[in-house]
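Reopening this one. Same input as before:
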Amino acid sequence: MPRYMSNQNLRASLDLFGLPTKNLLDEAQRLDIDTAILSDDSDHQISALDFGRLFIAMVRRSQIAAGVSEESLDDILALSSYRVMFVYMIHARTLRECLARAASYFTRFEAEKRSFSLETTGDTTRWVFNLGVIDSDASPTIGDFGMDELRWLPGLPGRMLALYLWHRQASWLIGNYIDLVGVHFDCAPHGSANAYSDSFAAPVYFNADWCGMEFNSRYLDSPLVQTEAALDKMLSTFPGELIEADELASSVSARVRGLIGTDFSKPMPSLEDVAIRLLTTSTTLHRRLRDEGTSFQKLKDQCRRDAAIQLLRDENNSGTAVAEYLGFSDPSAFFRAFKKWTGLTPQQFRSRKA
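Same output, byte for byte:
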């Protein structure tokens, strides 16, 4: 089920670019996105996928406005400091190690050494963002969107976007929505505070003496379930796929799919493993999946199917290698399974792709 953003949150996010409204309208028209969503009095909503497409388009616009040539833009985006950081993060074993890597990366490479840290007391962890004194009137400039170095966007909008995206990023990495206990901002709100609570599905506190999020410490020991291929796919529609991570909060089957993940170089978790990580029993998990019209086996097959399709798009991966990676002891068993999933053999799939 696609996720949606309200007009208010859409405009707040895109206004960070500081580009003329005409640029937004031009890009929306080019992408066949209904421009009515961009009007000030609109009550329309935009899908997460379309928001991601529009966000990426505005990033490209901001780079060109900053003097980057269109010819070199793809290379800059592909080799940006952010992608390098995410690749460094994704090879960590747990979320705790992953966030520690990100924090050290920011400390080393962010211009003013501003970063974040984890402070754990018992069952509660504070994810503290050390972003310096806030200038409530500050607005982003074109230079703030450069991809050659790490930056934090200024003001409350920049803080909100940072916390929102890092929360979704962490949830995506472990394939499990991180339920927040509270969100704290070291400044006053702009307008109604309700919109902020809706964005985080948690209480939001303003004029606090720190900036960051609180959550149960158990999430820190969660293993990462994503691969570099999944990372590239996520970045290609950033931040659309992260917004869709909200679905993990309400759908048990989405949470199970997330926990199975796409990295089959590791042993696939059992029903019991997944139940433990969701703080439930195998019997209850089985019943809740049945209520959603699915089963653990079906979800495993869906994850294998998605991974197989992704791997077979690369001509360097043989069918036998893909079968072995997905845990099939016999390649012929994989070929039969793939045809059952897609209606095509791996060879037919590749022929159609060509």
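So the earlier flakiness isn't reproducible anymore. For the record, Strands lie at 4-6, 45-47, 115-121, 124-130, 180-184, 204-205, 212-216.
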